[in-house]
Specification:
The chain is mostly beta strands. The chain has helices at about 1-5, 30-35; strands spanning about 10-15, 20, 25, 40, 45, 65, 80-85, 85-100, 105-115, 145-150. It has one domain.
Amino acid sequence: MSKIFGAWVWSGSLTIASGMPFTARILGNVADVARGTNGTLRADLTGQPISLATPSVSEWFNTAAFMLPAIGQFGDAGRNTIIGPGSLVFNMSFAKEFPMRDMMNLEIRADATNIFNTPQFRGIDTVVNSPTFGQVISVGATRTIQIATRFRF
């Protein structure tokens, strides 16, 4: 029994990251390119706080903190004023080698990424004139498990 259930090697890694910064912007028209803005402008600030006490996927930040700038004007919102979702990922691995004879052994290994299947929110819509403004619009990979067997001789 100890040859099968004993001497397993466990390893893991934990990644904790703060959110990436985003900039509130306005998708403009082709005429904006002539002004050197490549079709996007920054939004105007309204004076309300940007962050929310309890962000959700349907409203990650206070959308009322931004508005469209006056026609022909540039917005006054700074770069990277919106902090995106952070991440918490725990990966784990189990492995065991079974010696056979002379220089031969069998290895069984199981690797799992995002073992607790924590949602990894990635992108948020920061385009003020978009119907999904302020919402989480992309999610990272879910849990994956890979099992491998290797015979070494």
